[in-house]
Task: structure prediction
Amino acid sequence: MMRVLVAAALVCATTASVMAIELPPEIAKRGSIKVAVVPNYPPMEFRDPATNALSGFDVDLGEALGRKLGVKIEWQETSFAEFMPSISTGRVDAILSGFTDYASRHEIASFVDYLRSGPKFFVQQSRAAEFKDMAALCGKKVGASRRTMFPAEIAAWSEKNCGSNPIQFVGTDGSADARTQLRQGRIDAAVQGNETLPYIMDLEPGTYAPVGDAFATQFTGIALPVKEKALQQAIVEAIDALIADGTYRALLAKWKLNDNGIEKATINAGQ
Result:
């Protein structure tokens, strides 16, 4: 009898924890949240080469959020260029795909931030001795994805630290292209977020060497429609619950993102 009572109490407690977070009526009725993802950014999101299944920190986090909210996560693969249109037209309820929270995006989306990161310089391991500190990058060709804030952040760092010998920025078609150009010797160094660089270095051991620390701070967030205040609050409460019960920290450890964790989810809202 005692075991039955304990089991019943646990079921009630679990149900209460789910029901305590109020979702918008349409989502609650549907029983799912439609989430946009582009699985090409390991370890945040990618397709497992062995199974072709969606994998990564964001995928695990999304599924954990779904369980906490009592709904299914409907992953919808799209392109990076379609992220903001998919939110503004209502094709999806959220974007959970290594998406950086920039103020320029707040007119269309509000962000629930769940990860802290920053751009980091790296070079070929074979040339590491040439770059003992970040100052050695002045005057060199440095590549990074032109679709990010990295170009502006590199320019700001160069202006502050390089004087009359600025970094020569080379725009690339993404982080993979930057690494390719680095290996080919077309650039001297590259920049990538410190949330993904350790994973890439593990995949290609002995290929790259980091130079210095992250030279700016940015936040990764779940993008949500500006007007969906109830959904924004529900996601904040769910993330905070995952932080409180240890799930969030376990996922950080699984994907080697311990240095990128936060203590509490925050909303950066549009107008």
About this structure: The two ends are 55 Å apart (CA to CA). The chain is about 35% helix and 25% strand.
